[in-house]
Amino acid sequence: MSEKLSLQEQVRERFRLYLTANGLRQTRERFAILRAIYEQEGTFTIDDLSEIMQQHRFHVSTNTLYVTTQLLVEANLLIRHPFSSAAAVFERIVDERPRSYQICSHCHRITNIKSKDLASSLETYHSRSFAISHRIAYVYGICASCQRKMHKRLKAVNTNATSNSTAKRQ
Ligand SMILES: [Zn+2]
Predict the structure, then answer these.
(1) What secondary structure letter does DSSP report for 128?
(2) What's the CA gap between 8 and 14, in Å, rounded?
(3) Hey, CA dihedral for 105, 108, 114, 118, is it positive or negative?
(4) Class of 1-94 in CATH
């Protein structure tokens, strides 16, 4: 519980500094959104966030959510994942541990990759000219569920083709 509070306090302070340094307003809405985001785990979209804010009985416009998430991305407090789904996918940054995800190009489902080798490669990568803020790797492909669906469909097409050609021959 105290750890959770200190994370909230830390991110609040970092956001406050970012807003001050950039001459931006420190509104109640912005901090309420930050708080709601840091109470969540995993990825979320603007629609999800809107629902969360409603659950908190805090009314904010969709535009405010867009603007604030963008500010949080710029402040390095939020990741905007470059996934190919229609809606932008965000995730809070809790620590500096490297993360890796596999993304299904078909259904856009995102799963964590638990690979020590990949994590250590990401951790040891350094650049002289690029100030790294977080280390994330993405692997794209087709998930098990989509593979199964595709196989089933392919099988059905093949069965139809076979029965059609059998029908023609009769
Ligand atoms: Zn899939």
Answers:
(1) S
(2) 10
(3) positive
(4) mainly alpha
Distance 110 CA to ligand 1 centre (A): 9
CATH number of 95-170: 3.30.1490.190
pTM: 0.73
Tokens 């750890």, residue? 3
Instruction: List the domain boundaries for the chain.
Output: 1-94, 95-170
CB 107 within 8 A of CB 143: yes
Please tell me the distance from the alpha carbon of residue 33 to that of residue 65, in angstroms, as a whole number: 8
Question: pLDDT digits over 50-86, tens only?
Answer: 999 999 899 999 999 999 999 999 998 999 987 666 7
What is the distance in A from the centroid of ligand 1 to the CA of 145? 6
Give 147 Cα–ligand 1 centroid separation in angstroms: 7
The answer to whether the CB of 37 falls within 8 A of the CB of 68 is no
Contacts of residue 54, defined as CB under 8 A and 6 or more positions apart, other chains included, come to none
